[in-house]
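Moderator note: this is an archived Q&A kept for reference. The question asked for a predicted structure of one protein chain; the sequence and the answer are reproduced below.
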Amino acid sequence: MTRTLDQTTQPVFRAEGVTRVYRTGAVEVHALRGVDLALREGEMVVLLGASGSGKSTLLNILGALDTPTEGKVFFRDRDLTRASDRQLTAFRRDHVGFVFQFYNLVPSLTARENIALVTEIAKNPMTPEEALERAGLPDRMDHFPAELSGGEQQRVAIARAIAKRPEVLLCDEPTGALDSKTGVQVLEALAQVNADLGTATVLITHNADIQRIAERVIVLADGRVVRDEVNTERIAPSEVSW
């Protein structure tokens, strides 16, 4: 499961000198302190770091759920820090898929119907059936969330995220609430999407062994990138230690 990372591939994202300061009264929290990075087409990147290191803040800024205090973020040649709220909403809708630790499925809708919420507003979506097939749930399309296991619900969330054919998939602790068996199934679904669709994928995790499935590993500490390196030997998700 090795692939040579082409450093000449056009970056999908570039972050330059990104800082994020949260202010509550007189208290300032420096979540990011001058982050520079590039995310390239088709690569899978794992973000590691202790709680409070800035991982989720960085992911939210890349996905335009948050904005930097200073610095710039580019999606291809587009400066997101100069975009209006309306433009950022369109950017999220058209280009980015999100997967979080908690599935955020609508309980009263089937798996198929949950995905249709996205495909009905996307520009060039796959069908809900294709998305669920890619996520490994072809036989659970008409089940409600309460009828699905945690791992199955997370794979529905992945299917929902990829149904609009995003160029980037941003995943914040997608296996954090799962046991080892279902966690591996979710990682396998993410790896398959990355391989089949060429979707650049960023995965936040507290499980350091998950870094071994990625092409690149970026480690944050105190809001700074302290390590950014290419994996020379990757493993399959089934080989991850839990």
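Archived answer notes: The chain has a mean pLDDT of 91.
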